[in-house]
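Example record

The entry below shows one chain as it appears in the dataset: sequence first, then structure tokens.
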Amino acid sequence: MDVSSALISILVVVVATVYFFLKRKFSYFERHGIPHIKPESWILGNLNGVGRTIHLNDLLQKVYDNAKGKDVIAGFYALFSPGMVFVDLDLIKRITVKDFSSFTDRGVHVSEDEPLTGHLFAIGGEKWKFMRSKLSPTFTSGKMKLIYHTVSDKGVGLVKAIETESNKNGSIEMKNIANRFTIDVVSSAAFGMESNTLINEHPEFVDVFRKIFGEEGVSAASSFLLGMAPRLAKLFGIRMFDKSVDEFFFNVVGGNIKYRETNNIVRNDFLNMLIQLKNKGVVDGDSTGDPRKLTYDETIAQAFIFFFAGADTSSTAISYTMTELAYNPDIQERVRQEVSERTESSNGEITYENIHEMPYLNQVINESLRRFPPAFTTLRQCIKDYPIPGTKHVLKKGQGLMIPIYQIHHDEQYWKDPYTFNPDRFTTEEIAKRPNLAFLPFGEGPRNCIGMRFALVNVKFAVATMVKNFKFTLDTSKTKMPIKLNPQNQSISSIDGYWINFEKISTF
């Protein structure tokens, strides 16, 4: 056999091997009898255009719709890996609560080369159990009441920023204002530093925010790859965060920790509780059976996740709520009337107590979280083989799984006219008619959002403050309804922005 014949034979073998490898990989769901959408690419599977022209949420909608009523799980292909989506509420309740021990991990990217990834949301196993037990006492309602001043102190700056920018530019982009408000709140609570981004001081906080969430940050496709195919992501050198983000947080948070310890400074904020966990292993006033303390890196990482999880999700919820109130003036006026009535006895001040006595505001926030949940999906990883009760399916150890929160929130089986904004869905009577897990903005079970109370107070205060001080309408020349998602953003975000016209009113 001559050289050319030998090369052709080798090429044929290589091509045939690759062909049968891919054919085997992309027949996984057919072989296991699981409803799925067929791969659109021999390389990307179903990820063609995701993160560029298609939002991941749109892909999940397609998967969900294809499987609804057929099975309890559905499939799609993330590169060569089978991705699983739960489409049955009873199964979701099982894996998040009853059979949680088989799904304790998220399978999210964690790397020793990126110390900020060692936070509560990402870590799994015993590390997660340890960290959750340590941090839970810091998020009680009592602790939130102590930290409330961190939120309320930013109200004056929020009103002033809206006035200034409205006078200068006319309509303003709500997400920009909301980002700066939540950055100010969270940087004060988590880092003990007054960033004052609402009045354009310390722009480095806004810069690092953009490096995490904006165009400079990790793309939606890269973020998804880190979660679904971490080995491949490592091969391509993909990081969750730019190295400058790590440097920023270790310098800012680390510097504040050392300054407080050196000068014996105590504040009622999240950073103070983290310092207690680092130095004593417990938060003052609480007890735990585990005497271990947080390491320095663990302390920084938990302060970071408070910023990472709290700033963008809260600002998204604020932005969408304000957009709907601007688009629905009757609902806006009803909220304004409630805020007026509930704050009358406190001379117009929005206190921790009266903000919890505004049922209609709460309904509006819940409806906003239903329509546009900032965490539109949540992840789980099977840590041991799990036979799904009542089916022939067995989820294998290491399998990545997704709970499609947005799709459940818009399923006509649970919600009438699901794409209509209607706060009356959340009256006590209406809530009783639905399954509990039809509404999952903060997840469910032991791995639900630990910062839920703080996030809700943050959002409620911001919305109540703006309703109290302004009347506002949607700038329909810039923001089109219904909102279309930006496919390049890894979270829920309007491609047009949230442009609103504000008119100052006399406070009551």
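Notes for this example: The longest helix spans residues 296-327. The beta strands are 73-78, 81-86, 172-173, 378-381, 386-387, 394-395, 400-403, 470-474, 499-504.
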